[in-house]
Design goal:
This protein is α/β, with parallel strands linked by helices and 161 residues long. The protein has a domain of 95 residues: L-asparaginase, N-terminal domain (Rossmann fold, 3-Layer(aba) Sandwich), CATH 3.40.50.1170. The chain is 28% helix and 27% strand. The chain is built from four helices and eight strands; from the N terminus they run βαβαβαβαββββ. The protein has a six-stranded mixed β-sheet with strand order 2-1-3-4-5-6, with helices on both faces. A two-stranded antiparallel sheet has the order 7-8. α1 crosses α4. The longest helix is centred in the C-terminal third of the chain and has 14 residues. The radius of gyration is 14 Å and the shape is globular. The N and C termini lie far apart (36 Å).
Length: 161
């Protein structure tokens, strides 16, 4: 079993800006280094789809993510994503009825900060994607959320009641 990793940007990758015109150029993703640091032994393949602050991820970007999920050989997928619009992307992907297990994760603090939750969330996502049934999920801060039952609230996620 090989897990497909799609990188899209977000705070986890130290990617925050207030205007698309101010997006950094030639910034390298922190994600490959985090996977090595985590000493993950499950085979995986990383592909960078985009490198955006998720405030600026739109439905055109979500469609690209969905197509990448449909087209990849692997049936276990992890997507790194900014938390600002992660629930929207999860719901969008869920609506596409892709028969694979898709887990989105991010971080409240950039991975290059000592107080970051990035490594923990990566480990949780790798564990979750291996055991969850096909569907779309968000894994953050030790919790697993179904794509249709989650919303962004401040810097963490809560189940909708």
């Amino acid at each position: 079993m090989k897990i497909k990793i799609f990188i899209t940007g977000g705070t986890i990758d130290n990617l925050e800006y207030d205007d698309p015109k101010h997006a950094p150029n030639n910034q390298e993703s922190l994600i490959p280094g985090l996977f090595k640091q985590s000493r993950i032994t499950v085979p995986y393949d990383i592909e960078e789809i985009m490198f955006k602050d998720s405030k600026f991820v739109d439905d055109k970007d979500r469609e690209l993510i969905a197509e990448k999920c449909k087209q990849c050989f692997e049936d276990k997928i992890i997507i790194t994503h900014g938390t600002a619009t992660m629930p929207l992307t999860a719901k969008y992907l869920d609506g596409k009825k892709i028969n694979k297990t898709i887990v989105l994760l991010g971080a409240a603090f950039p991975a290059n900060q000592q107080s970051s939750d990035a490594l923990f969330n990566i480990g949780a996502a790798f564990s979750a994607v291996q055991f969850l049934a096909p569907g779309v999920y968000i894994v953050m801060n030790g919790q697993i959320f179904n794509a249709n039952n989650v919303k962004k609230e401040k810097s963490y996620f809560h189940n909708e009641h």
